[in-house]
Amino acid sequence: MKTQEEIYNEALNTFLKDWYTKTYPDDELGEELNSRATFYDLFEALENYQDVYNLFGVSDSIVRERLFAKLSEIMECPYEEIYKQWLR
């Protein structure tokens, strides 16, 4: 189990586009992702009920699901918690 500081640092220092394009190199939408957005930014967008698609720069549900899955891994919480937060 990671410490809160480790979770924070991983989220802050992992860029959505970098992670996505390395993990899904055949998905061309990865190149369209916001290159400055981090998983911390995604967490903050969900916490503040902001439109995550604006943060991503891509309006694709598969991309969203993959990014949510990685965020749940970083945060060490079930995917369903991330998804429920997004639905609010």
In short:
The chain is mainly alpha-helical and 88 residues long. The chain has helices at 4-13, 16-23, 39-47, 52-56, 61-75, 79-87.
Mean pLDDT: 96
Over all CA atoms, what is the radius of gyration? 12 Å
Q: List unreliable stretches of 5+ residues.
A: none
* Main sheet overview: none
C-alpha end-to-end distance: 28 Å
What is the domain total for the residues? 1
SS content category = mainly alpha
- What percent of residues are in strands? under 5%
> DSSP helix count?
6
String of helices and strands: HHHHHH
Number of strands: 0
**Which of globular, elongated, flat, extended, rod-shaped describes the shape?**
globular
Helix content: 55-70%
User: What kind of oligomer do you see?
Assistant: single chain
Give a description of the structure.
It contains six helices and no strands. It is an all-alpha fold and 88 residues long. The protein has one domain (4-87). The longest helix is centred in the C-terminal third of the chain and has 15 residues, at 61-75. The protein starts with a helix and ends with a helix.
Any descriptors?
88 residues, 64% helix, mainly alpha
Sequence-ordered SSE layout with sheet pairings:
Layout: H1 4-13, H2 16-23, H3 39-47, H4 52-56, H5 61-75, H6 79-87
